Amino acid sequence: MAELVVNQDKVTHKILMELIDLCPFNAIEDHSGDLYINSGCKMCRLCVKNGQGVIELKEEENKPQVDKGLWNGITVYVDHFGGEIHPVSFELIGKARELAEVTNHPVQALIMGDDIKELAEELQHYGVDQIHLYEDEKLKDFKVENHTAVFEDYINKVKPSSILVGATTLGRSLAPRVAARFKTGLTADCTILKMKENTDLVQIRPAFGGNIMAQIVTENHRPQFCTARYKVFDAPERGEKFGEIITQNIDSELLNSKINVLNVIKKEKEESISDAEVIVAIGRGVQKEEDLKAVNELADLVGGQVAVTRPLIENGWFNAKKQVGLSGRTVKPKLIFAIGIHGAVQFTAGMENSETIIAINKDENAPIFNCAHIGVVGDLYKVIPELIEKIKGGELNV
Ligand SMILES: Cc1cc2nc3c(=O)[nH]c(=O)nc-3n(C[C@H](O)[C@H](O)[C@H](O)COP(=O)(O)OP(=O)(O)OC[C@H]3O[C@@H](n4cnc5c(N)ncnc54)[C@H](O)[C@@H]3O)c2cc1C
């Protein structure tokens, strides 16, 4: 761990006041002219950058060192259920291929289950170099202890440098357990991933309530683990068959979960905003619940689903599944209307990769216009009826 060292001899009243103002966490205090850092400090290092040498970062001596050359490959954990691969796994394969170009590492897929050869063969069409297949009847149902044991076995045998896991219910349960076994870092819900030439994976995600984009690097441990949500990255097109399937074996004794799955009841597939191709997203600019009638009419006309910002969940108008954003769902439709939405980073983090964003806001300075492809400055109570009229009259084709 790094620590902050305060050079009290360099502290002047002016610098102290500036740093107190600068710290976003109110962690710097004036103790009779001395600078004191309290427990609110989140090590954001703003004070180190701007403190004119008053605060220094002291890196830990004898840091653990890893031989990065021994770790080779970018592995995607393939999430599947009921004979279908979760689409997030394809998206991660697309990202892994991009990252692998920097380091010339192979892209590997890790798939485990029972009677899943066909799924492994399907993966051969997505540009994966190696598909590591674990089949055992004890892997038929997801049992976190068994799946963790297999994952551990795989890492010990193959030694991948980076591992990408979909932030599904299953992935969120599995990835931290495996990361803990290797005493390595895991960054959850990454929205951007970049690769350094030295094989360090730069894991970028909103942090501190979405106020900053944190860049997290696991410099001294391998493997590097991250999860990413569905609809953040692009899946590659299905192509020619490529890559080899490597059958891996694990000592069945290690699959010793005490969980006995009696029955698996498949949930009805629900309509989800994450799958929508067109979305009409609304925010607090819509003032009354009865105004939703016009919003629904617009959504019907454009063949879209209605989605909302968090305040509209909090006021009880919508179910939480309709929320877009950091604490809601990530969406990447072909077209999204953002109507009466300010454009807080916590909202845009969940929709800024949409193909076309049309923002309607009466405030021309609203941040939503920064990520919009088309911006309409106007009152939604005038713009929505006009849009409806024009679509109905055939003047506008959406
Ligand atoms: C940890 C954390 C997580 C969060 N997660 C999320 C999240 O996942 N999703 C989310 O949405 N928020 C989230 N938030 C809340 C977020 O910070 C914002 O408060 C929220 O997104 C604001 O919603 P809004 O844009 O609808 O409302 P407001 O900020 O009130 O904006 C309303 C907008 O409507 C415009 N407007 C008003 N009247 C009209 C009109 N007649 N015509 C046209 N435009 C009009 C205004 O100009 C304004 O820009 C989170 C916050 C925190 C701290």
How would you concisely characterize the structure shown here?
This protein is α/β, with parallel strands linked by helices and 398 residues long.
Write up what this structure looks like:
The chain has 398 residues and is α/β, with parallel strands linked by helices. The protein contains 11 helices and 21 strands. It has 3 domains: 3-58, Alpha-Beta Plaits, CATH 3.30.70; 68-253, HUPs (Rossmann fold), CATH 3.40.50; 273-392, TPP-binding domain (Rossmann fold). The chain is 26% helix and 25% strand. The strands form 6 sheets. The protein has a 7-stranded parallel sheet, with helices on both faces. A hairpin with a 2-residue loop joins strand 2 and strand 3. The model has no long low-confidence stretch (mean pLDDT 95). The protein binds flavin-adenine dinucleotide. Residues 74-258 form the Electron transfer flavoprotein alpha/beta-subunit N-terminal domain.
Layout of strands and helices, then pairs:
Layout: E1 3-6, H1 13-22, E2 28-31, E3 34-37, H2 46-50, E4 55-58, E5 74-77, E6 80-81, E7 84-85, H3 87-103, E8 107-113, H4 117-123, E9 130-135, H5 144-158, E10 162-166, H6 169-181, E11 186-190, E12 192-195, E13 201-207, E14 212-217, E15 224-228, E16 244-248, E17 278-282, H7 292-302, E18 305-308, H8 310-314, E19 335-339, H9 345-348, E20 356-361, H10 368-371, E21 374-377, H11 380-392
Parallel strand pairs: 5-8, 5-10, 8-9, 9-16, 10-15, 11-15, 17-18, 17-19, 19-20, 20-21
Antiparallel strand pairs: 1-4, 2-3, 6-7, 12-13, 13-14
Helix pairs in contact: 5-6, 7-11
The structure holds flavin-adenine dinucleotide (FAD).
Flavin-adenine dinucleotide (FAD) binds next to helix 8, helix 9, strand 20 and helix 11.
GO molecular function: electron transfer activity; flavin adenine dinucleotide binding
Protein name: Electron transfer flavoprotein subunit alpha
GO biological process, one term: fatty acid beta-oxidation using acyl-CoA dehydrogenase
